Automatic annotation (TrEMBL):
Signal peptide: none annotated. Keywords: Glutamine amidotransferase, Transferase. This is Type 1 glutamine amidotransferase. It holds the Pfam family GATase. CDD domains: GATase1_1. It comes from the Bacteria. GO terms for cellular component: cytosol.
Length: 251
């Protein structure tokens, strides 16, 4: 069987696929990376079995400075309509929300930065990707915008005290994660160097090399199996939410 092919939308060079790419390729998934600021986005999703949208320092509606954001929202909306497995991270989650009727804004409580916990919500208990996660998994936060209102009909999957809409699902298989699971310590330290004002909102030791290395070992233990489940969803080996006992054919 031909390997499933994912479209990867990368808004910023500062937030690459990193560990997420390693985990997906180890699961036999082919990745087609599009650097949105450097090359045109595809016209449609023909030939793709899923979509990933990564993070970036810009806002989800900053179209004047970054006109290609409209292309990202268009493709994410199309992925939901086609029921393609989709994983949207940080800015990607905000773009997914904005593309499907949600609202994004500057977070009124200021930046959320560091290695922090999120807590699963009730709907996560029956979700194909979230059900097997710990109740309060560790994640990496580095953002100041938020999904203020979830899209109509979206399932709320995880929350934090400061930013309630930490994870959600739109339709059967499009997931938004406000937090990061793909990073390496080097990527996080680069963000802190580029945005010291936001970094100052974290506890100081959160940018210690040893602390970050240990945190990323914990991330991998929890989130690599999550990504493996996403790969199974892409391959049609895992039933989407609300479709128990059925499998989606590969496109």
């Amino acid at each position: 069987m031909t390997a499933p092919r994912l479209l990867v939308l990368q808004p910023s060079q500062s937030d690459p696929l990193a560990k997420l790419g390693e985990w997906l390729e180890a699961d036999g998934v082919e990745l087609h990376l599009v650097s949105l600021k450097d090359e045109p986005a595809p016209e449609n999703l023909d030939g793709y079995q899923g979509v990933i949208c990564l993070g970036g320092e810009m806002g989800a509606l900053d179209d004047l400075e970054h006109p290609w954001l409209a292309d990202a929202r268009r493709l994410l909306s199309s992925a939901v309509a086609k029921r393609l497995p989709t994983l949207a991270i940080c800015l990607g989650a905000q773009l997914l929300a904005a593309a499907t009727g949600g609202q994004v804004r500057k977070g009124p409580q200021g930046p959320e930065v560091g290695v922090l916990l999120v807590a699963k919500r009730d709907a996560a208990g029956t979700d194909p990707l979230f059900a097997d996660l710990p109740f309060t998994p560790d994640v990496l936060q580095f953002h100041s915008d938020e999904v203020h209102l979830l899209p109509p009909g979206a399932e709320h999957l995880a929350a934090s005290p400061k930013y309630p809409n930490q994870a959600f699902r739109v339709g059967t298989s499009a997931y938004g994660l406000q937090f990061h699971i793909e990073t390496t310590p080097e990527i996080v330290l680069n963000w802190a160097a580029k945005d010291p004002e936001s970094a100052a909102c974290a506890r100081p030791h959160h940018f210690d090399q040893d602390f970050l290395a240990e945190a990323h070992r914990d991330f991998e233990e929890v989130w690599q199996p999550f990504v493996a489940r996403f790969a199974k969803l892409v391959r049609g080996e895992l039933s989407p939410a609300g479709c128990l006992g059925t499998q989606l054919p590969l496109v």
